[in-house]
Amino acid sequence: MEAESVLAAAQAIATARRGRVPLGPLPVQLQPQDEAAGYEIQHEVHWLLAEHVGDFAGYKIGCTSKVMQDYLRIPHPCAGGIFAQGIHQSGAALRAADFVRVGVECEIAIRLARDLLPLDAPFTIQRVLEAVGECHPAIEIVDDRYVQWETLGAPTLVADDFFAAGCVLGAAVKADALPDLAGITGRAIINGTLAGEGTGADVLGHPLHALAWLANHLAARGDGLEAGQLVLTGSLVKTVWLKAGDRVLMELDGLGRVEVGFD
């Protein structure tokens, strides 16, 4: 895409997000035709939203489990940004009205202790393991901020950070005390009722495969991951859409619990 079209598309997306106005299809001339163009637009969206969402804090990875790939009809991972103002601690009370249509996902979050830079690519599960500082049980907050997401296509969803709207973190577990991440069972419990269950192995076979995918994806674009950044590795369960007043608990065996309410 031409630079002017990339910027115009990013401005349309950022304006919709700031105003919490559902995003419909972009004008034909501004629609990204592939995911590479979607990531170009996403980069500009991040700059345009900086004052609104805070400092860039890391990445979320979507479509890393079969249940999510089937749900979104996208057979491969996609990445979006995480920002400081969207990160909350377990027990937070958030406003459902601050979202267009809020949903939650059950995730394993990784905090990096070392950089993963493009000059060090390609990355394997063994190499990214060395960069893990700690993990958190996490609730990814997603927002269906679209008129009809099914009609937009993956490139436009990528341009808009792939539903990303923040996260809630439970207590950190240091790298040297972590259980086998692939063997973790995670449960989504809404208002005391089980709403979904999955395992760490559902995330590309191992959550660290998702981290390696992200590091290689960024390296191909000349970007990298930095120490201190957070990575949400993908949902163990299908997205659960909420209503005002819902209480959310995610349990990840061996990693901990994390809770949030949407008032």
Model description:
It is a single chain. This protein is α+β, with helices and mostly antiparallel strands and 263 residues long. It has one domain: Fumarylacetoacetase-like, C-terminal domain (Fumarylacetoacetate hydrolase, domain 2, Alpha-Beta Complex), CATH 3.90.850.10. Helix content is 26%, strand content 31%. The chain is built from six helices and 14 strands. The strands form two sheets. Strands 1, 2, 3, 5, 6, 7, 8, 11 and 12 form a nine-stranded mixed sheet that branches. It has a five-stranded mixed sheet with strand order 4-14-13-9-10, with no helix packed on it. Helix 1 packs across helix 2. The longest helix is centred in the first third of the chain and has 19 residues. The radius of gyration is 17 Å and the shape is globular.
